[in-house]
Predict the structure of NAD kinase.
Amino acid sequence: MSLKIAFLASETEVAQTARRTLVGRYGDVAPERADVIVALGGDGFMLRTLHATQDHSVPVYGMNRGTVGFLMNDYSEDNLIERLRMAEEEVINPLSVRATDRSGKTHHALAINEVSLLRAGPQAAKLRITVDGRLRMAELACDGALLATPAGSTAYNYSAHGPILPIGSDVLALTAIAAFRPRRWRGALLPKTALVRFDVLEADKRPVVSDADALHVADVIRVEAWSEPSIRHRLLFDPGHGLEERLISEQFA
């Protein structure tokens, strides 16, 4: 039985050219009718594809037509059916994010990599951090903070000196960005089931913005985030090159 493939590509010429070539060789169906979705682009396009197709419960196999391509497989026009049949599946859960701005409006989003809070002015942000209803840090003076999933732990989290998390670990990384008080506080590892709340202190004097994948909220006063187990993103990787191996290899690079 042949595989029904939906080819999706970023807007770059190299990705669009690859899509035309692959569609000519393997055919193409709509994502909702596909056995597998092949995403052509970089990591940003992969994240957009996962968000756009999360209701279809179809695995996504990425081929790198972008830059870093951490979530992608190597690009090749040959033996695609065989690669798809042999691919290994990884399942990741996104963060559910609820952000409230100074006007009182609440914004909702899903974040596959992380949710971040960043100062939006010349002064350090001041954040209060509560975990599962228990106050854990009364005041963190910093450039910002983020909560990362294992899949996102090698992205912004790693650049902020946060830990790399094995993909199967049931933990989230809470990481400070340029902490001033407490001095050099890097963050904490939290259970995947944790509900994390950030409250912005002195929001009028020290404005903060929040980002969660495509969601951007200015003048945020409160952000709550938790892992969403009901949503399962299915990613396919060539054998021996899955997220688990990539996360381990990244620590020895």
Notes: The first helix runs from residue 13 to 26. The chain has two domains: 5-92+232-250, 95-227. The mean pLDDT is 92. The radius of gyration is 20 Å.
